[in-house]
Design goal:
single chain, mainly alpha, two-stranded antiparallel ribbon, 12 helices, globular
Amino acid sequence: MKKKKNKASAASVNGRLVSKPIQRCFPIFMLPTFIAFCIGFVWPFVQGIYLSLCKFTTPKNATFVGVANYLTALQDSGFRYSFGYTTIFAIVSILSINVLAFIVAYFLTQNIKGANIFRTVFFMPNLIGGIVLGYIWSMIFDGILQRYGTFLLAETKYGFWGLVILMCWQQVGYMMIIYIAGLQSIPEDMMEAAKIDGATKMQTLFKITIPNVMSSITICVFLTLTNSFKLFDQNLALTGGMPVKFGEGGSMVNTTEMLALNIYSTFYTGANSRGIAQAKAVLFFVLVAILALAQLKFTREKEVQQ
């Protein structure tokens, strides 16, 4: 007993001796990262909020105008349309991506032959850039639709479902990896107990499997939610916001233009529109932050503690 106590006390002493230098040097190691974080994120974020209250062509010649940019942004029919369009797209893509990713992950954890090869194949599209994917899929869709005498940018519905298919093809593999990790973390004794109790596969799926992978569902829904709202490069390459229709007051509205692309287009419309675009960007940030935090709170409440 004395030997064990001596070993424990020696270990605690060594732990304190090691931790003290780390605690003293902690600010030194953190300082470069903190400075980089302030320069790369905090300062541009604060400056962006200030510029959203200004009329400017460059940050050095900004003129303060108050909330006028926000009022103009909210009155913009194109911005309001993009908000509704992005919301519908986000709902459809979140459901599609997560359902497909979970189904693929579920079957690839059933000890099938070549599971690792299938995982690699499904994950590979995530490695391709969004601009490249957009141009590739635009050619694929046009090649299919031309057989029926139409093309991708002829109607809004073609562009919408084209974006949904592209997003699913790109992101299902990434979400699949997260779901596989969650499925493999389910305790084996729990699954065996369900079999012994005579639970069917569907009962096991909905009563044991899904509740135990809620942490993976939380992560995947968060990622697909933020990615759907922030979608830009795929939207730019695939449809560019086209086709165009006339909105309120005869204004032109790009019917497949999502929020990020609308902000980008507004910024380069003219020198006087940059403050409006910055106000839209701030509203966009607030919207995504609120939705993401609400989703995290909702899904975390349903997680099962193992």
